């Protein structure tokens, strides 16, 4: 089962209807770290949330929803929803879980996943080093001030 380390974003058609199932007019503008319309990185979502916006938990979808700027909408995961999804996979004896778009994480989602997983971090990510770019990805687009260091996990 895949776990997305990014948010899916939309511009809602009716600002009065901002919950799951409401009609959207288009995918939202790309985030400052992705440049891809309809996709936000964990760092960008965290920055939006820090501005005091409303975050809702869609229990049916096991996802969080954040709305801002009157008509912008994003669904994303955090520690709470990642735990729900891991429990779901374990209860159904699924063969495993995997992360989609690990390069869009600022370290917060890996830390969240590690905190709710029944596996030890060393079993899952034995050579992870946040101080060095890895996984074949250039992490230069994330400012140093927003990177999570291994000793902070």
Automatic annotation (TrEMBL):
Record Pfam families: Glyco_hydro_18 (PF00704)
Domain GH18: 1-120
UniProt record similarity statement: Belongs to the glycosyl hydrolase 18 family. Chitinase class V subfamily.
Listed EC numbers: 3.2.1.14
InterPro entries: Chitinase_insertion_sf, GH, Glyco_hydro18_cat, Glycosyl_Hydrlase_18
PROSITE patterns listed in its UniProt record: GH18_2
Alphabetized SUPFAM superfamilies for the sequence: (Trans)glycosidases (SSF51445), Chitinase insertion domain (SSF54556)
Top-rank lineage group of the source organism: Eukaryota
Keywords for the protein's UniProt record, in alphabetical order: Hydrolase
Recorded GO MF terms: endochitinase activity
Name the UniProt record assigns to this protein: chitinase
One BP term from GO: carbohydrate metabolic process
């Amino acid at each position: 089962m895949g776990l997305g380390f990014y948010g899916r974003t939309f511009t809602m058609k009716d600002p009065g209807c901002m919950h799951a199932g409401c009609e959207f007019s288009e995918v939202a503008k790309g985030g400052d770290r992705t440049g891809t319309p309809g996709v936000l990185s964990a760092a960008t979502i965290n920055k939006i949330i820090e501005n005091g916006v409303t975050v809702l938990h869609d229990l049916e979808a096991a996802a969080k929803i954040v709305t801002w700027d009157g008509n912008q909408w994003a669904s994303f995961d955090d520690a709470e929803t990642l735990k729900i999804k891991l429990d779901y996979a374990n209860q159904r004896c699924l063969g495993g879980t995997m992360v989609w778009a690990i390069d869009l994480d600022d370290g917060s989602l890996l830390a969240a996943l590690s905190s709710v997983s029944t596996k030890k971090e060393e079993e899952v990510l034995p050579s992870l080093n946040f101080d060095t770019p890895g996984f074949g990805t250039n992490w230069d687009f994330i400012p140093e001030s927003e990177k999570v260091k291994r000793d902070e996990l």
